[in-house]
Design brief:
CATH superfamily of the largest domain: ATPase, nucleotide binding domain
Helix content: 40-55%
Strand content: 15-25%
Oligomer: single chain
Order of helices and strands: EEEHHEHEHEEEHHHHEHEHH
């Protein structure tokens, strides 16, 4: 497409329409210069999936198809701009549920083709990281970022915002996935993270000594599969003995084990690497116990600590627009032939 003559530089105002549809939220935003969010519309499908105890991909895809055009219109109206004002369109192309990804990506391709503007394909996890800079644009670098969501648990080192080193990642279940599975097993409902956190506030985190996975001494990797199995076995054993199940204590003890595992690796990396800031990102970063534990430990090291506001922790399009802005400046555009990559990694 012949849009090269109209490309702008950082000295100009750049307007990007961003689309996020990787799971069960249909989200569209309009970002000005990346970090100024003119609109951020999220249509959640939680109520449709609650009765199933988790996201049903086929239902999610159908709801995205129903919602994508109205949500795009609402985002443009709230931003007070028209299609003709856009300089680029961005969409999540992975990781996520392939049906949902294809809906958002196809909408973005259509807009790109019709308006002759660049298409920017954004990694969903990168979006979560850039969400931090919407609230805190002056985060000092180099930095460590712990990204924790339903599908990913990654510990990253950033020298600047143009590249990163992956220090560690989960070897099995992601932390958010473990929250969802344990919440479902305990009958606490969906989504699992908020359900576990709510129940944990009524319990004793020291009531049950659940295991923390011991990895290689020099490894920053995580593992939550064994912890998940330990919780399920504990509950099954209690029930077989006819003993009363204290859901609050179990939820609090499980949550504490997850938080301990995450924070221990984060602090170990902060001690080894010369960083100025530590940040959290992803849906699990909304967990108040995790935030407090991380803040307490990071404060002891005299490092700056950041996390996104709650509405930017969960899936949203503003974070995709923030990441897309820096890709725009680097002229990192995608061809219209690009496809969704459900298993995309950082």
């Amino acid at each position: 497409m012949d849009f090269k003559k109209r490309l702008k530089t950082a000295e100009n105002d750049i307007y990007i329409l961003a689309i996020e549809s990787s799971c069960d939220e249909t989200a569209v935003s309009v970002n000005k210069n990346g970090l100024e969010v003119l609109s951020n519309v999220v249509s959640s499908q939680v109520e449709f999936h609650k009765k199933f105890g988790g996201v049903v991909p086929e239902i999610a895809s159908r709801k995205h198809l129903e919602l994508i055009l109205p949500v795009i219109d609402e985002a443009l109206n709230k931003a007070g701009i028209d299609f003709k004002d856009l300089d680029a369109v961005a969409a999540t192309y992975g990781p996520g549920l392939v049906g949902g990804l294809l809906v958002g990506l196809t909408a973005a391709k259509t807009i790109s083709l019709m308006l002759t503007i660049p298409l920017i394909a954004v990694n969903h996890i990168a979006g979560h990281i850039y969400a931090n800079f919407i609230d805190n644009p002056d985060i000092k670098k180099p930095l460590l970022c712990l990204t924790i969501s339903g599908g990913h648990t990654d510990l990253l080192y950033f020298e600047d915002l143009k590249g990163y080193n992956i220090l560690g990642r989960t070897r099995d279940d992601a932390a958010g996935e473990a929250f969802d599975k344990i919440a479902r097993f305990m009958g606490l409902g969906y989504p699992g993270g908020p359900a576990i956190e709510k129940e944990a506030k009524k319990g004793d985190p020291d009531a049950v000594d659940f295991p923390r996975a011991i990895m290689d001494e020099n490894s920053y990797d995580f593992s939550f599969s064994g912890l998940k199995t330990a919780v399920m076995n504990y509950i099954n054993n209690q029930e077989q003995r006819g003993e009363k199940i204290n859901k609050a204590d179990i939820a609090a003890s499980f949550q504490e084990a997850v938080v301990d595992s995450l924070i221990s690796k984060l602090i170990k990396a902060a001690e080894e690497y010369d960083v100025k800031s530590v940040v959290l990102s992803g849906g699990v970063a909304a967990n108040s116990r995790l935030r407090q534990a991380a803040a307490d430990e990071v404060k002891k090291m005299n490092l700056d600590f950041y996390y996104p506001s709650l509405n930017l922790c969960t899936d949203n399009a503003a974070m995709i627009g923030a990441a897309a802005y820096y890709q725009y400046l680097d002229r990192d555009f995608a061809p219209l032939s690009i496809s969704a990559e459900p298993s995309l990694r950082l």
